[in-house]
Specification:
Aminopeptidase; Alpha-Beta Plaits; elongated; 2 domains; 9-stranded mixed β-sheet; 404 residues; alpha/beta; homodimer
């Protein structure tokens, strides 16, 4: 059986050493990865510690066949991030590896992967290592990335063993993978509200992200009757009000994380209002309908013109149904908690698992609850018994998959 | 009769020399004022050219009595401003002065005043010279003012003849003033929409200006169902939508010139939304009701908390009814245009005349139309025949007042 308490102890030790400072392609991140290597090697000679061409760390326990069960997550974090996002899946995976390695050789091979740069905080590109491994990240895309100070991403990642020249060639270790699973915190409040410790994840919401510029007519705050103004802030407010109500009614998510009036003069009707819109839905048709509704609402206002530039688009990702069912079954009957087996939930955030699923690899995830739904913050937390339930569910799931 | 064409010629010459660059307390502004002095002196020995203790320029034609009719405006402009805002009233006033000086000594004294720093662009304090002259500007307030580079306002204005030590002592030249009038462009589109060249101004709208901070709960754009979010941008949009509709319904003006989500992350529900709200109405009770409605709307949202800090408050200013009637009469029957005599309108922007009215001096204004309502821009314009109508109306009004 897996020692979930030991996994949680290692999470706390890691947080004490490098918590909130393990941004990808930095020394604290690289140092923590060397510690993970040492920990995996200490587990016994049967485990191979390797890096692929994209700085992803592989911890492999060969089975009777090359068919591979992959357990992945990431040890990098956002600056000031919490003690669980990503690193939970890595330490839980290494805990599972140690438990399996202590027993007889499994039928299938087990690979724990610490994907490089899931968060994308350095270059604004999430899922960097996993997307490189699946072949989705192109050399042209990497060439377009740079750090805030202008240093090209290629120069920075090369210093940590990432080979830009290998881009476009999917990582061969992925070929024999028959199942990929990941344990992560939810980063939302659904499980907490439902009173669940852990749940399987059926897929990731689709995303349509755009920058909208509303063009009005600037003027003095004391002039022009309200009915004759072309006020881009008022138009933006009406747009947000209607679109958000529509998203809520149809089970989607709509967020404006950035909004700005230009020029920002307290006593003037602004000339422009710029806002970033993030739309999400689990059903592609609904996502497209919400996106089209945004266009219609923008076109409706004749006094205020608008432009809309796409920033990012990702269709909804469905994880493998059989694997999701197996993950759901694995959440039942943990030793630590009488957890009700709930319906699989959807992930709003993207994860490395999404990159694998998009590449056609059978994939599923497990989420533990997030206290208050808080993440990307030092306040991020999960009740310890929920972590135990998640770690044990991952162990049960992997054992089942290794025998299939 | 006044030579309106000559006044317009001087406006164009001034604009060619220093257009858009006559910010108060700069060399282009001071140089233009010396030219105005020379122009006034060239009109004949009967006119005294003086500066008061607050750098306001006085051009005085003594009458049979000390009772004074004051014609004021300002020759400073906002950076990149137009060819009419403020300087129209100064050149028109000097044109009136020249026309009156060419005739017999008037019964009352005529004073043209070029108020210093109406725009307030250097220190963020509008109506500086006129407020100093009425005694409304205190030494403590001046001490709190500084230029963007941190230089104290007192140091800058002293170099142009403004004596901070005189603050608190109303300018003696104001004591015998029995009527103060000002010709200005409307800076709004009301006259243009009504097909009017010129109109009397009954008063200035009252203002309530505040900074509102909405406090929500930050979260990932992919997490938390819409109905469970505490989204400060959505709350701000609803607030703007309802309050602006209320302002429109009740004949007021509501403007949000600044709005900002914090932190500005495209993929996150923001923690806060900060917006500046400017409310205006001509009726004090309606202004107060609109202001109270803003408080009620903010208090209604229980998920999103709010703070509201007052930035500026000015009750509506009523100009002198008899003087407004005289100004209205003066707009009838100009030589240049068969202008319909319209109802007096209200000024949304404040003017030096507001400072005089607040000090209890009988005051009124005349507005000419503004093309497209555009001002504080190089595109600012007024049809030349409307300018002629305004200049001639000012002349008729002043002649009447000098004889009263």
């Amino acid at each position: 059986m897996i020692d979930a308490g030991a996994v949680i102890g290692r999470l706390r030790e890691t947080d004490a050493r490098s918590g909130g400072r393990r941004e990808a392609w930095t020394e604290p991140w690289a140092a923590e990865r060397e510690r993970l290597d040492a920990q995996a090697r200490a587990g016994g000679g049967a485990v191979f510690v390797q890096r692929d061409s994209f700085a992803n760390a592989w911890y492999v326990l060969p089975g009777e066949t090359e068919e591979t069960v992959l357990v992945g997550s990431h040890c990098d974090c956002v600056p000031g991030g919490g003690w669980l996002d990503g690193i939970l899946g890595v330490h839980a995976g290494l805990g599972v590896l140690a438990a399996i390695a202590a027993g007889p050789t499994p039928r299938r091979t087990l690979a724990i992967v610490d994907w490089a740069d899931e968060e994308g905080t350095r270059f604004g590109r999430s899922l960097l290592g996993s997307s490189a491994a699946t072949g989705a990240l192109t050399a042209a895309e990497l060439d377009g990335l740079a750090a805030a100070d202008g240093t090209p991403a290629a120069a920075i990642v090369s210093a940590y063993g990432f080979a830009p020249s290998a881009l476009g060639h999917p990582e061969p270790r992925l070929r024999p993978v028959v199942a990929a699973v990941e344990l992560h915190i939810e980063q939302g409040g659904t499980l907490e509200r439902q009173g669940q410790a852990v749940a399987a994840v059926a897929g990731c919401l689709g995303v349509r992200r755009s920058r909208i510029t509303l063009h009005g007519v600037a003027g003095h705050a004391g002039s022009t009757p309200m009915g004759l103004r072309a006020d881009p802030v008022r138009a933006g407010a009406a747009f947000i009000g209607e679109l958000f109500a529509d998203a809520q009614e149809h089970g989607g998510l709509a967020t404006v994380g950035r909004i700005e009036a230009q020029p920002a003069i307290t006593t003037a009707v602004p000339a422009r209002c710029v806002l970033d819109l993030d739309l999400r839905h689990e059903v592609l048709g609904e996502l497209q309908a919400l996106d089209a509704r945004a266009d219609r609402l923008l076109a409706r206002d004749r006094a205020v013109g608008s432009e809309r530039a796409a920033l990012y688009a990702q269709d909804p990702i469905e994880f493998d149904p059989a694997l999701v069912a197996a993950a759901t079954a694995a959440t039942a009957g943990t030793a630590a908690i009488a957890a009700p087996v709930g319906e699989p939930i959807r992930s709003g955030p993207l994860h490395d698992s999404a990159a694998l699923a998009q590449a056609g690899i059978p994939t599923a995830m497990l989420f533990t609850s997030s206290s208050g739904g808080v993440s990307h913050s030092r306040d991020e937390d999960t009740p310890e018994r929920h972590l135990v339930a998640g770690i044990e569910a991952l162990y049960r799931l992997v054992r089942t998959l290794l025998r299939d």
